[in-house]
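Action item from last week, closing it out:
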Amino acid sequence: YFLETTTPQWLSGELIGKPAGVFTSTASLHGGQESTLLSMMLPLLHHGMVIAGIPYSEADLTTTTSGGTPYGASHVAGARGDLPLTDEEKRLCMAQGKRLAQLALKLR
């Protein structure tokens, strides 16, 4: 519901050109990670924000057997939500965070 409260920022254009990234967690590997991430981007794009995903130059993106997409970091938590982050998921989270920070510095 947070984004629904950002109408004043949308009307004023306050977030145009600001960096953003999205991430998610699902219960299973095919639990809708990609569609969730893409859906989360829509209001950010309406705000004119610049989205930072994860490029395929990140080796873990091509080898992960759990979470991780070019749209953003993700985690497979398991049906009970008790699975810890894998090393690949952690590295992909760090890569996306680093990319977002670099983008923020460039847009400053």
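Closing note: The CA atoms of residues 36 and 58 lie 21 Å apart.
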